[in-house]
Amino acid sequence: EIEKVEAVGIPVIAVTYGSQEDLDGWIKIIGQMLGREDKAAELLAYHHQTIDEISTITKDIPMEKRPKVLYFYNETIRTTGEGTYNDFWIETTGGVNVADSLQGWSNVNMEQVLAWIV
User: Fold this and answer.
1) Residue 15: what pLDDT?
2) Cα gap 102→115, rounded to integer Å
3) How confident is the prediction along the chain (118 residues), in pLDDT tens digits per residue?
4) Cα-based distances in Å from 9 to 5, 33, 35, 116
5) Do residues 78 and 106 touch, judged by C-beta distance below 8 A?
6) SS3 helix, strand, coil % of the chain, rounded to 5?
7) Hey, how many other C-beta atoms are within 10 angstroms of the C-beta on 18?
8) Phi and psi at residue 62, in whole multiples of 5°?
9) How far apart are CA 89 and CA 82, in angstroms?
């Protein structure tokens, strides 16, 4: 697909989604495209400072006091397991991803949801 778009003379930038590192890369690329690397660096510094502040606040919450979190996506019962960006944020903000036994994005059934939350 990218080659077809480039073949007609349209510049293409492809990005990956799924981690904080991916988002960092997007911000750097956009900064370069706009000639605003300084602003991109500023935004990245702010973002990482915020993550560090949140982590400092939540790191000492005992596991038994952390809220259980289940992230749903779209009309199906689709959730995010270990290794996803959503899992990163659930854990960073002091939650426990009840679907962390799964890898990546997965469809689940209602019986599995009930087993996690009961």
Assistant:
1) 86
2) 14
3) 889 999 999 988 888 888 899 999 999 999 999 999 999 999 999 999 999 999 999 999 999 999 999 998 877 889 999 989 999 999 999 999 999 999 999 999 999 999 998 8
4) 7, 17, 21, 50
5) yes
6) 50, 10, 35
7) 15
8) -60, 145
9) 11
Instruction: Give the gyration radius of the chain's Cα atoms.
Output: 18
Phi, psi of 94 (to 5 degrees): 95, 10
On whether the CB atoms of residues 16 and 84 are closer than 8 A, the answer is: no
CB-based contact 27:18 (threshold 8 Å): no
d(CA 57, CA 94): 8
Q: How far apart are CA 48 and CA 68, in angstroms?
A: 25
Residue 83, SS3 per DSSP? coil
The pTM for the full model equals 0.73
Cα separation, 70 vs 72, whole angstroms:
6
In the numeric block, which tokens belong to residue 24?
A: 């960092």
Q: Is 23 within 8 Å of 89 (Cβ atoms)?
A: no
